[in-house]
Structure formats: structure tokens, C-alpha cells
Input
Amino acid sequence: MPVPPSPQVPSAPRRARQLGLGIGDLPTGTHNAITDVPGICVGHTTLIHPPRVHSGVTAIVPEGVSPGSPLPAGVFAGNGYGKFLGTTQIAELGALEIPVLLTSTLSAFRVADALVGWILERPEGADARSLNPVVGECNDGLLSDIRSRPVREEHVRAALESASAGPVAEGSVGAGTGMTALGFKAGIGTSSRRVPVAGQEATLGVLVQANFGGTLRVLGRTVTPADVGVPADECGPGPETGSCMIVTATDAPLDSRQLTRLARRSVYALARVGAGYSNGSGDYGLALGTRPLGTPAGPAVVPDAGLDLLFGAVLDAVEEAVLNALLTAAPVTGPGGHTRYPLPAAELLALLE
Output
């Protein structure tokens, strides 16, 4: 039975920038999303069967990527307590050959298998004898029956085939449906920046699957759930638990080594919003370039000395993407009766004023 794709529009007009909480001085792209990078599409499949299941899968699909036409990529594990399947090959070869998927911890292996099957059926996979599926995960076990492994092959295919450019749904959608962060309901968040690089304008975009612990900081101020009137869940796991997956894309001409440096800074950016980087937190960054490897007529790689604005852009974009995830999420009650609430916009603005 076909799975309907999740809506590809923002869930509510309460993103950080719309509240006057935009981060940094660089301008954003048209949609302030990873899809502002030309050739990047995003698709979600959201699974909600309350109170038992709040889960899903999110696909980041670069145009034209294939085993025969890989894209440069780099990866960084800030803390490796997690599963980011396929990243050892990226670290070794510096190449991404198929789309990137995000999901729930125990569904990651089914998602990887479904991704391989989808590629093998397509023309670009017709001659493939080896594939490197790249699948990241966060644990949604507080708000979903994680042991049921609800994400199936048809859900993966729906996310891949519905992937599109334009606005990206955020919050409690796709791989973010059952995620929490910093004491609040969280999920998917995205943001972008336009950056002058080597005399030309480049675009950098990020997408986060926010599920990490710590104490939220907004514009340098600590914000606890109690500060903004959000009920505490005394029986839930402590703030030291959780993870975060960050995918960065750019059309700036960077090689895999430079993209690894960009991925590293995407994980550093979580400190700005109060990440705890705890023992049990899987904090990963993956960065990809949209210019294929080995293109003789392509532009020269940006000198390392010219990377500073891109480094600043990824720090700003990740910080804003996390705020977007917290602000656009919806309240969710899981099978154990635990409830997480999003960051309330009006109360946050009142506190900051």
C-alpha cells in the first residue's frame, strides 16, 4: 500500500528568524533551508500512531549523486556513541555515492537495507556490486516504541521519492517525530547562509536531527523548561542523554579534507545552544559538496585561508537550525506517558525581553 509523503512545508510561522532570533550577519537563502543549496532535495515520511509510535525517516537527496558520480564529503564524530552507518568509507575515501537517510536507532539497519534495494533498482545502480548506504540515527525511545522498529521499506521509498527542493517541514516530522532536545520537544531543523567565497557567492545549508541533552542557551541566556512555563517530566531521562545528527551541504568548491573541517565545526556549533556532549550522546557531522569529484573544468578548490566565512556560516546555521527544531515541534506523549513540549515562542520572547 503506498505511503503518503509528509507535507513539505514549514509546520508553523514560528521559526527563529520570524521571531527576530536570526543568528549572525550573513544572509540566508530563499527558504533558509538546506534545499537552498542547488541540487539538494529533502523528503520525510512521518509515522504517528499515538501513543505507541512517533517515528519516521528523512532523506537528503543530492541531485545526480550515484556510485559512478560520487560527491566529495567529510565526516566528524564529536562523540561516537551512536550509529552513523557508512561513515568509515566516507572518512577513508572522502566520497558520498548515494543519498543520506536519518531515522530512529533500531530502525537504522532496515533503512539501510531499503536504501540499497532502492538504488539497485535504479539506472545508476544497474552495475553496482558494492554500495555504501549512509544512515544516521537518534534514539526516540522516550516518545515511541523503539523496539517495534516501525520504519519499513515502503516508508524509506516514500521519503526518497517525495524529496523535493523548496521549503522543508521542521519539528515533529520524519526522523524528528519522536526526538527531544535540551528538555523540550525537538526534531528536524534547517537553515542556510549565502557566503562570499573566492570572489563568488556560495550557499551553505544544514539540516539537524536534534535529540541531545544539556541546558538550552538562546542568544547567550540559559533557558530551562521552567523558565518558559513548560511542565517538567520528573520521570523522564535526565538532560545528559541524547544525540544529534547534522548534515551540511554547500556548492562551494571544497575537497573532502576541507569538508571534514566543515563537519567538525558543525558539531562544535551545538555548544552555542547548550549541548552537553555527554557519554551517551552520539554527536555527528557530515558535510558534502555538490560539485562532483574529478571535474577537470570545475573551479579551483578554495584555499584554506578562504574558509573562515564558511566556518562562521556553519556555526550560525546550526545554531539557528536547532532553534527552529525546538520552536516548530508539536507536543508529543509517548507510550510510557512521558510528554515533551516545544519551546513556546511567546514565553521565550518575554523572557529574553
